[in-house]
Amino acid sequence: MEGDTFLVDDVHGLVYCPVPKVGCSFWKRVFAILDGKHKSSYLFNLSSVSIHNTRAAYDGLKQKPLLMKYFLLQSSTKFMFVRDPYERLFSGYIDKIFTPNALGGRLSQQISPNSDHQTSCATDATFTEFLRYVTHSNSVNQHFKPAYSTCFPCHMDYDVIGKMETFRQDTESILKSAGVDPRSVFGSVSSFDENSDLSIMRDVAARTFQCLPRCGGCMSKWQVMRRMWATFQVRGYLSINVTFPLSPVKSEKVTLSQVQDLLKDAYRSSGDHSVTKRQRKAAMMETYYSVPRTVLKELEAYVRVDCALFGYDCSVESRFNESSRPVPVFHLDTLLGRVQSNTTKPKPRAKTIAAINYDRRHLQ
């Protein structure tokens, strides 16, 4: 196990193993606050971009002397968080590939090196191509590795293995066990979900703006902004009925702070967020059903250990039964802006998220 994988708060007796796409940005901010290494004492005021880019914001186990490592591992509360593997990979694809960002560009040649079509941008890998990369690559990116190969629960005796499905409750329990009042870290429990959602949207918008210089050669600013907006609809933050508000001309002039304000207003006008959260589930199911069964069976083998260790159902037949195939609504591949190759007959363009008058019956 790599010592720098673990984050340490020796004052409160916490040792944490981050699993990407399972709340690790949240917990890195918690550690930065508990260690007193950041000016702000309120978690949602911290940018996950700055936390990820500044390792000095929190202590790692690797920096500790050998005897201190042994003492901390014996005396501290050791914990990690896990998530349904299928949901985690879908989230990773949407966040790191579908949404324009630097990582997607760096991985594009690994994900679709022999693609039979041209892409309009480096991040235009389909979900099927992404899954083939995950299941076949000998050096898959850390964001998509199984949780068991990141935190080694068979070798580390964790005191707590929290789950994304009960994230807030598990987080409160861990903080309280360390003598920390959760409200001193993230404020009122009643506003936790909204504050968390808005914080994520601000961070993704900031990261997207950082990517603009790299995307400029293959996507217009309007296309980048539109893709980002669709991301928030797929992730269940914005209602699919809230249309993208910017024209190509206005997109060229819009600033980051203006976009963040637009997102905040759209979030609060999206209505019942229990409905928008079901959008995320619907988008995930639709996207998985678009994947060939042979690829899904390979994926089933890839996630089998995580499913067995952490109590998730990984059976393709039960999770993606043909009799339950959903009616396509989101059409993510259309939003990728594919440029068909000369040897491929263009297909009729399906409606995109921004153009769909969404029928809420699909989310019941």
From TrEMBL:
EC nos: 2.8.2.-
Membrane topology: Single-pass type II membrane protein
Record-stated family: Belongs to the sulfotransferase 2 family.
Any single Gene Ontology cellular-component annotation: Golgi membrane
Molecular function GO labels: sulfotransferase activity
One Pfam family per UniProt: Sulfotransfer_2
InterPro entries: Carb_sulfotrans_8-10, Sulfotransferase
Superkingdom of source: Eukaryota
Keyword terms, alphabetized: Carbohydrate metabolism, Glycoprotein, Golgi apparatus, Membrane, Signal-anchor, Transferase, Transmembrane, Transmembrane helix
Compartments where found: Golgi apparatus membrane
Name listed for the protein in its UniProt record: Carbohydrate sulfotransferase
Transmembrane segments: none
Annotated source species: Batillaria attramentaria
